[in-house]
Amino acid sequence: MIPENLLIDFGAVQTTFKKGELLFREGEQPHFYFQVVSGEVKMNNYNDEGKEFIQNIFTSQQSFAEPPLFTETTYPANAEAITDCSVFKLPKESFINLLEKHPKIHMQITRTLANRLHFKAIMASEISSQDPRHRILRLLDYLKQSVLKNKTPFSFQVDLTRQQLADLTGLRVETVIRVIKDLEKKGELKIKNRKVYR
Asked: Is the pTM of this model over 0.85?
């Protein structure tokens, strides 16, 4: 995303978080631009019954939680370290200044946000109307296209756990396990050494 040397030039600080540690909570005011150096971070919500819904998962070189920096609103979800991770934190004012001085990076951020909006629209439609098999395949195809940018069968190794797949699609983990086995039988997925390939 934003080159690390440029982030540092504008005052970003590299911060480490332990697995399970919160970077911020839903409802808090935004003060920083975040970009992952290493590890994984998820943005999530919990419903009234305590069930987790994962909004998205972010890995190395990906940024997250930018919209509230532009809209003057609070965070709509929590950010939690899935693994021990290292993250650049750039103060909001410095982030806006960086974008004003580097329009090409501003355009990259805009494209990233547009892609995420597209993903949210797809998943909202899937969760509201489609069966579990369709939800899972749609999510995996979206991830495959965004990561590998190709359609070669079984070239994409899914690095998400069954629980993470459930939390991303609004399904129960038992349903995800059953559906993955069913999709393998139908030739839609392959499973090798407990890893799923699409």
From this structure: no
